[in-house]
Amino acid sequence: MKTAIRPQPGIMDIDLYQGGASHVDGLDNVIKLSSNENPLGPSEAAIKAFRDASYDLHRYPTSDHSRLRQAIAGVHGLDAGRIICGAGSDEIIAFLCQAYSGEGTEVLHTEHGFGMYRISALANGATPVEVKENERVTDVDALLAGCTDKTRLVFIANPNNPTGTMIGLSEIERLANGIPKQAILVLDGAYAEYVEGYDGGAALVDAHENIVMTRTFSKLYGLGGLRVGWGYGPAHIIDVLNRVRGPFNLSQAAVNAAEAAIKDVAYADHCRIENARWRNWMADALAEIGVPSDVSCANFILARFKSKSEAEACDEYLKTQGLIVRRVVGYKLPSCLRITVGDESACRRVVHAIRQFKGD
Ligand SMILES: Cc1ncc(COP(=O)(O)O)c(C=O)c1O
């Protein structure tokens, strides 16, 4: 049917985001290793806070997320006044694009960068600009060379998804110092919690006027289903983002659960340690059978196969074994599979199945 109704420019260029698959036809009891979720689930304290919130479902939630921001600030040693909470860090990315990009502007991201940067840029009529990585590692020189007077936002994830690699703070600082004056560097720290001793770039945010850090409760804290993320940045930027934020963008149950989760430092430490242990075990075991991966700093590994067809065949074989991993063709990594670090038994099953696939 012909219609004169048209969406804004850019929107029809968006390819729908593909989430990780969660079932295989005809199989029960599959293990989902396709969305980088915490196999141990959330802290018991978070579950209790979520349950307790069910008695107040008739009430509107807090609009300023003050208690959650204070809790985040307390754990990370930040200024609560410069934290903003969103429905996942996806929403913070969307706020940034809404507030700072638009028609005639450019949003930079890296070759294998997270898909929501491109989607959010297009949703706001901006032009996404993709910049090469250096062997699956963020390339600061390429990003600097990709900047123009139209650049408004430069997104990097550190560690990056789906590569698992990361760059050092001095490289990030070089990037922040080198981008044009009108541009913001966004440090996406969705996996920062997995890196012992890494602040996600928070100190750099404090030292610069043009850096925003995004973080999430979806990964280490095991709350992907609740949709809570946050951003930390200079006061002038957080003020702008709060103006486009809906007043009730997070449910109270989500806010309360996130607050309990971040205060449960011992459980977060436990999850980080278990992840590192089984990630390293899985990476070593796969390397031994001819499936290498870059050193991963996150809760997944990017397993490299000999060819696109081998990766595809392995993915199909894993499915028959009830193991769902992630193909990353859309991330321009056709001969790779991204495998989330599961619990011990899941990691052992994956390695066993890939060994069988390889005929070892
Ligand atoms: C690099 C990166 N950034 C942001 C997100 C968004 O996470 P959420 O919206 O659940 O906070 C993800 C999720 O997979 C991610 O991998």
TrEMBL record:
<keyword id="KW-0028">Amino-acid biosynthesis</keyword>
<dbReference type="GO" id="GO:0004400">
    <property type="term" value="F:histidinol-phosphate transaminase activity"/>
</dbReference>
<keyword id="KW-0032">Aminotransferase</keyword>
<feature type="modified residue" description="N6-(pyridoxal phosphate)lysine">
    <location>
        <position position="219"/>
    </location>
</feature>
<comment type="similarity">
    <text>Belongs to the class-II pyridoxal-phosphate-dependent aminotransferase family. Histidinol-phosphate aminotransferase subfamily.</text>
</comment>
<dbReference type="Pfam" id="PF00155">
    <property type="entry name" value="Aminotran_1_2"/>
</dbReference>
<dbReference type="GO" id="GO:0030170">
    <property type="term" value="F:pyridoxal phosphate binding"/>
</dbReference>
<comment type="subunit">
    <text>Homodimer.</text>
</comment>
<dbReference type="GO" id="GO:0000105">
    <property type="term" value="P:L-histidine biosynthetic process"/>
</dbReference>
<dbReference type="InterPro" id="IPR015424">
    <property type="entry name" value="PyrdxlP-dep_Trfase"/>
</dbReference>
<dbReference type="InterPro" id="IPR050106">
    <property type="entry name" value="HistidinolP_aminotransfase"/>
</dbReference>
<dbReference type="InterPro" id="IPR005861">
    <property type="entry name" value="HisP_aminotrans"/>
</dbReference>
<keyword id="KW-0663">Pyridoxal phosphate</keyword>
<dbReference type="InterPro" id="IPR015422">
    <property type="entry name" value="PyrdxlP-dep_Trfase_small"/>
</dbReference>
<keyword id="KW-0368">Histidine biosynthesis</keyword>
<dbReference type="InterPro" id="IPR015421">
    <property type="entry name" value="PyrdxlP-dep_Trfase_major"/>
</dbReference>
<protein>
    <recommendedName>
        <fullName>Histidinol-phosphate aminotransferase</fullName>
        <ecNumber>2.6.1.9</ecNumber>
    </recommendedName>
</protein>
<dbReference type="InterPro" id="IPR004839">
    <property type="entry name" value="Aminotransferase_I/II_large"/>
</dbReference>
<comment type="pathway">
    <text>Amino-acid biosynthesis; L-histidine biosynthesis; L-histidine from 5-phospho-alpha-D-ribose 1-diphosphate: step 7/9.</text>
</comment>
<keyword id="KW-0808">Transferase</keyword>
<feature type="domain" description="Aminotransferase class I/classII large">
    <location>
        <begin position="29"/>
        <end position="354"/>
    </location>
</feature>
